[in-house]
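Session log. Operator J.P. requested a structure for one protein chain; no other inputs attached. Running the standard single-chain path with token output.
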Amino acid sequence: MIQIVVAMFLSWEKVFKQKRSAYRAMGQAIRQMIVIGRRTIARSWLVKGNNKDFSSQYKLNNRSKWQAQKLFEPVISQAIEQNKGKFIAIAADDTKIAKSGKKIQSARWQRDAMGPGFHLNLQWGLRYLHAALLLPLHQKYGVSARAIPIYFKEVPPVKKPGKLATEAEIEAYKKEIKINNLSLDAVAMFKEMRKEVDGLGGREKLLAWTVDGSFCNKTIFKAELERAILIARTRKDAKLCFENKISRRYYSQEKFTPEEVLKNEKIPFSEAEVFHGSKFRKVYYKEVNNILWQRGAGKKKLRLLVVRPTPYRKTKAGKLLYRQPAFLLTTDLETDACELLQIYFDRWQIEVSHKELKQDCGLGQAQVRNPLAVSRQPVLQVVTYSAMHLAALQLWGPHFPDHLCIPKYQKDKSRVSSKNLIRFLRDEVIFHPENLPFDFEISAKSLLDSATL
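Structure written below.
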């Protein structure tokens, strides 16, 4: 696996001005992934077993001139090759990384997404915009899709003035949030990824962006996106209508909501089969085409998909329970609804990648506070995560390799976890350092010694 990962990383030489900086970035990315314990820059350096000055490791992130997004090019290129369909499905979301340092300039108090719904919890940390390419492995192998991160950028919210702020400061804040917000950053990402995919051989593919409710707004839907469609979860009380063909008024005065469509018995349910939760399942949906969302999309025609709540039981003899319905708005008016629903169901995989990056790969654990380092250092970990998953798919396919041991408690053998991939990478680096093009000799003893620091 290490040979495939390094082969992808070798293209970084054109990203950095000096070859030694590229090798230093490769070494730091791999060491931070295989280190035992907290994944800080200092601890990853001490894995080599020397106590020399490691300031060059910090200067790589806060002084060296390189563009973080360029590191994803080999990952995007390989991910496109494995996508054979009409669309390149990409999930987009924002994620927060908790921090404790009060001297990080872009850190803010933000809502804690893991807090309970009945109480607002705040979290001090950083905010990043994340996009992951969804590989539809269920089409060929009958397993869940994989989310391969291809974009990771810091998007700090505008600092809100305090209670003692003057009127001029409040007005400046209101103007700033109109030109610097998450939705505008997302639109810029959509356009940037279109250019990047075109340059890597995906010009004939359509980008299918699937997003959650926070991105379902007029900034996103009114944006002119080239060769791209949107699939977004909307509110149940969104005011929708049809085009008025009787008078000169463009929007019909008869409004309706997605919830009313769900309850309308005159609109029949259609049946679709989507892959979710390790097997194909039947879902029932309603479809309303050529609708208008006056406040959100203006005169752009949209399509509404309403998914009926799915019944389930916690036990075989338990009470029948229901999940929440899904209300989706899409700019695609022609594609089969089953295909669009499958893309949205696959969106859940980006949440899986969030969890694995933070819990298994130590995303955000590096102790940096320089603005450049804060924005660029996490990209090294995210790219390594993507490279490991692509290498595993290339070597063993989507299933767990038969020749490798698997814990007895792990029932699902159809997916290699990120912890397994880290363990495989660590073993290859220790026992086969000759596969690395740069000085990377470490031992099991130095790994254990660094874990006790």
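Operator note: The chain has 14 helices and twelve strands.
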